[in-house]
Amino acid sequence: MFKQHHVNITLADALILMPKYQKMLKGLLSNKEKLQELANTPLNENCSAVILKNLPEKLGDPGKFLIPCSFSELKCKALANLGASINLMPLSVWKKL
């Protein structure tokens, strides 16, 4: 149904078709001081870490976190809440689905 399609138009024609972008670009180019001010924006520590690629290594999924529990003769493992959103429902409701 969909085929590859290429459109070749000039930058000027593309700007005419995007009036809001055209207005913003024209405003930036006509006010060189503001453009220079935007170019020299100081970076905070978060931005510089991204630019310097000094981010900490991502860790893998720790998996499930179970705590052994015992109630008289019943021994089981309880799922600890690690802050994740977990939805629980009674077994009787699940069987009716």
UniProtKB/TrEMBL annotation:
GO terms for molecular function: RNA-directed DNA polymerase activity. Keywords: Nucleotidyltransferase, RNA-directed DNA polymerase, Transferase. This is Reverse transcriptase domain-containing protein. The keyword Phosphoprotein does not apply.
